[in-house]
User: Fold this.
Amino acid sequence: MAVTIYDIAREAKVGIGTVSRVLNNSPKVTSETRDRVVTVAKRLNYQPHAFAQALARKRSNTLSAVIPFFTNYFFIQVLQGVQETLAAVGYDLIIHGANTQLQLEEYLDHSMRKGRVDGTLLFSLTLPDRFADFFLEKKNPLVLVDTYHPLFDSIRVDNTEGAKKATEHLLSLGHRTIGMMNANLNSVPARERLLSFKETMNVHGVEVQDEYIINSSYTKNDGFSREAGYEGMLEFLRRGVKLPSAFFVSSDIQAIGMIAALRENNIHVPEDIAIVSFDDIELAKYFNLTTMQQPMFNMGELAVKKMLERIENPSAPISSINFTPTLVVRSSCGANKNFVLNDNR
Amino acid sequence: MAVTIYDIAREAKVGIGTVSRVLNNSPKVTSETRDRVVTVAKRLNYQPHAFAQALARKRSNTLSAVIPFFTNYFFIQVLQGVQETLAAVGYDLIIHGANTQLQLEEYLDHSMRKGRVDGTLLFSLTLPDRFADFFLEKKNPLVLVDTYHPLFDSIRVDNTEGAKKATEHLLSLGHRTIGMMNANLNSVPARERLLSFKETMNVHGVEVQDEYIINSSYTKNDGFSREAGYEGMLEFLRRGVKLPSAFFVSSDIQAIGMIAALRENNIHVPEDIAIVSFDDIELAKYFNLTTMQQPMFNMGELAVKKMLERIENPSAPISSINFTPTLVVRSSCGANKNFVLNDNR
DNA sequence: GTTTTCTGTGGAAGGGCTTTCAGGAACTTA
DNA sequence: TAAGTTCCTGAAAGCCCTTCCACAGAAAAC
Assistant:
């Protein structure tokens, strides 16, 4: 059987209380007894029993992450930030896939077992109100990433600022007929990005032409998909409208689909049309997309930090942090034709 | 405080043992008392305390996965198989990132806490022998994915068969001068794929020319990287050797780098040179790579099933399963110019 | 030298569950 | 009707830890 503190206590001729104190670095132990206990523990190759600890401490040093992580690359990178930060402080991470709102509710209904985790990280999906109460009542900390709820800490990307910067980049390059390839307006980011695009155009006195706004009707991934970009552009071309000189695209993955559709029609990027997109997923590099970079790793990192703070201090005021995306210039808008080839991860 | 079985026992006027039996579907309870208990449990919104259960049952219904999952797309997809299969049987998944052998040993040394998980899934990294004993002694089930050790269950891809099929595909298209862009020979898959490539060529009576074999000296990701493919090809071109008519490339990601290098030198795929690679990561679709598909989702799924079997029956004979990759024909070897555009996930 | 304070220590209690064990009630069998 | 079975149930023990409480002995104060 496994070694327990009783074994150590016996061998070191001390009480179990003392053993526990030594192992938890309590100061109230003579260095002499401490040494004795440490030596025995090492000799027996003692490993504390995580569950017993969690039961006694009412704390598990474990977080759960609910992630639609199979949908795109965004989550993988956020997850990396989460996991590295967590590993550094000795926390474990339990992963739950929930690709749709439905799956989220299912998870929340069935598997959300109290006592299991010290906190929950919810990614991208919208927290249904009936569960808000649940988290509040149970005092189970919840941190939202890439989504928002007024009663919980959240970490997001500033879509308004990002879309503004992207649009201004295009404007600064001299483009005056600019379209927007958008995702499904059901999604909050899609709405925010569109709004900001229009406003920025207005501010700069450049007319927004409605026929150049392509909103997606795809529901899968809210239209943030290669397919949506591909079909959207194909349909746009079918309409026979004259092409604008540039497009702001609401995600890299759509831009990739869109480029394929353009290429099939012998329209080239950036020679014939400029593109700025959003996200800076790993693929963006391979397709030379000029894009608005979301600091995904940092978001994951920060989410964990927020969570740890919240666990320490449950009554701290709720905070909502916005990351501002930064423009990464590659060659898809012609601003810079230098092909950056470094495979930096 | 949270609702416990004591609360239920009191309200339902039964003993705690009976409550526990009801909740665990023990048959030795009258349907009358069962109903009474179930009703109360529901009314109080009882949730079993996972840690207390784990402590009492000596079973946690939790698996840990040690994954170098930030290195490439392979793992994400395997992980998806793992997580979905696990969710279906009510298991939790704890994720640990370990990108190098060193990090693996660190994890094994520090964090491998007995009692925490029912089993461990180790991906791609090589299990150091000193830890083999550890798992054996502790009777902590271990299943290896994409790696091998004689004393544990493992699930792999048949590199030999895959390289053979890839090479034969090229041969069947009439190619007679075929090169191989390989990863670092330190890695087992790289060695296996090279060996099989050579053998297949021999079997078909086609000469292998050493100057057409490019082995990578990159250590990062064992040369399974875009950079390795890019630089490898650039250096090859610099040598001024006449190009073979086709290349077998040991991974998609290398092929993508290689294609970039070729393009810069005005060499086009598949017009000037044919390429078959290995893996079928999601990117492969976007680059139209003809490639050997590894059934990643299925591997994850099977890994979990094996693990569950192993937990049920610790003394079952050790099994080692080889998946045979299947050829996915796209346009990179000219065999099929139909661009498949579906964004199927 | 006596009383008070302080330190370090042992061990019981408690955390929430499963499981074993013993016993009461209902039922058979002689 | 007594003895033997069967079935269900309650309660205690155990899983392994942390923490609280009490106490002995040393140190400090008087």
Observations:
- Residues 61-158+296-324 of chain A form a domain with the Rossmann fold fold (CATH 3.40.50.2300).
- Residues 140 and 194 of chain A are 35 Å apart (CA to CA).
